[in-house]
Amino acid sequence: MGRRYYCEYCDRSFKDDPEARKKHLSSLQHAKNRADHYNMFKDPEVILREESMKTPCKRYLTIGDCAFGLGCRYSHYTPPMLWELQRLAEMKKQSKSHAMPENGWPDPDNIIKEFFENTESSSSTEELSHPSWRRPLELQNYSMLPPSLWPITPESLADTSTFKEWG
Which label site among 49, 66, 104, 152 has the fewest CB atoms less than 10 Å from its CB? Predict the structure, then answer.
């Protein structure tokens, strides 16, 4: 049957020869479908800027359908949709301000500053609490446990003479 060329933007296939491909790629329908595809990935800031300059499409807002679709020169965004776009744009700006610098490495001065701010905010007078290690219930009846099974206490960690017995 011959080779076929499939265009993902237009969701159609046709004979794969240079003339047919050139004709398809230069068609208005293909250009519109390709632009619509890439418009889905625009930044919320750009969409908000473009849509706020347009007047609302009366037919789309009253009936819910417009014959021009995404190619309409009027805005198909409702006020709540525009508010949501504005919220997304603000969130993106905030995330950019908290993101890492362009070279991909965090600023060491900011890390040190953040570390000391966090340590100063916590009270330094708090004592460190040690976890209490207890023998499992199954082993409590055994009096002659090897040192490796003894419960860990701060005193046992400080005493290094018991480690010689582990042998």
Answer: 104
Q: What is the pTM of this model?
A: 0.45
Strand partners, 14: 5
| Tokens of residue 27, six digits | 């068609």
Triad 110, 112, 115: Cα angle to 5°:
105
77 φ, ψ (degrees, to nearest 5): -95, 130
* Secondary structure (DSSP) of the chain: ---EEEETTTTEEEE-SHHHHHHHHTSHHHHHHHHHHHHTT--HHHHHHHHHHSPB-HHHHHHS--TTGGG-SSB---HHHHHHHHHHHHHHHHHHHHSPPTTS---HHHHHHHHHHHHHHS-TTPPPPPPPP---GGGTT-SS--GGGSPP-HHHHH--GGGGGG-
Express each pLDDT in 22-64 by its tens digit.
999 999 999 989 988 888 888 888 888 998 899 999 998 888 8
